[in-house]
Amino acid sequence: MSSQNVYILGIESSCDDTSASILCNGTVLSNVVATQKIHEQYGGVVPELASRAHQQNIVPVIDQAIKQANIDKSDLSAIAFTSGPGLMGSLLVGTSFAKSLALALDIPLIDVNHMQAHILAHFIDEDEFEKPDFPFLALTISGGHTQIVRVNDHFDMEIIGETIDDAVGEAFDKSAKILGLTYPGGPLIDKHARSGNPKAFPFTKPRVDGLNFSFSGLKTGILYFVQKQVKEDPNFIKENLEDVCASIQYTIINILMDKLKKASKETGIKSIAIGGGVSANSGIRKALKEGEHKYGWKTFVPKFEYTTDNAAMIGIVGYLKYLKKDFTDMDVVAKARSKF
User: Fold this and answer.
1) Fewer CB in a 10 Å sphere around the end CB: N or C, the chain?
2) 0.70 exceeded by the pTM?
3) How many CA atoms lie less than 13 Å away from 206 in the CB half-sphere?
4) Any idea which fold 132-301 has?
5) Before 47, cis peptide (omega within 30)?
6) Where are the beta strands (DSSP E) in 225-289?
């Protein structure tokens, strides 16, 4: 193997997906994800069950990633892993394994912030995907986070707006639960919304100062609305599912876009990138594209498989840190909550 090639093994275990990826000089050679189905019956992620599943999945997933990349573990230059934020038990599995393997192979260890990785997923080398220029605004939207981040450089980021209560992914999932949809409900709301009328049922948007978000009031409003309608007509959900989903999605997207418009105006930055699991939502992608024509934005949407939790995004941060020789020592610990 050529000595100038940098091979990074990325390990992601922050929530309920175990993922491993091999990158060579910023290009993805493999990106393996094992999804845990066990949580569907509970309507949400059960931390104890998640960490147990990670323990079962981590060795086969890493083994598969190395085989798919067609390299040997001795070719690895460094190991990058998610150190936080996330579920403590899940993070510990990935952290412990990454430390042990780095020690055994005598190669550098690189700790990665999960939210930073969602943003830097835009820098994975993909022919058809353009990378954003600095500075740009990143809207990171997932089950646990909703943030607007000013990105000045790969490792110079500032959160300029964030949720003061629920994350947007939680708002989607809890609204879906109110409608009797299975977990995870966000993708189902998106699916039903496509054939519904987004203006059928107006929901009140919360008033929050600055660039911060709030979704708990909207969620409560949806709950009371559905309860009232079902009391009057037990078949209400069944007969109006598409319209209710479309109206919920329309309201949530409007909340996100209003803050993004404000952030762009205040900072003068017109390059907008999205990341995180909720950025797979078709309505959000469409609204962002419309922003290009309406506000003169240049928008960046990552490849579908790099939006949800995956190890390729951990690997690209690992590669960028490797180039700076920004390694961590064996004393590194997982942190359930961590700011970048």
Assistant:
1) N
2) yes
3) 24
4) Nucleotidyltransferase; domain 5 (3.30.420)
5) no
6) 271-275
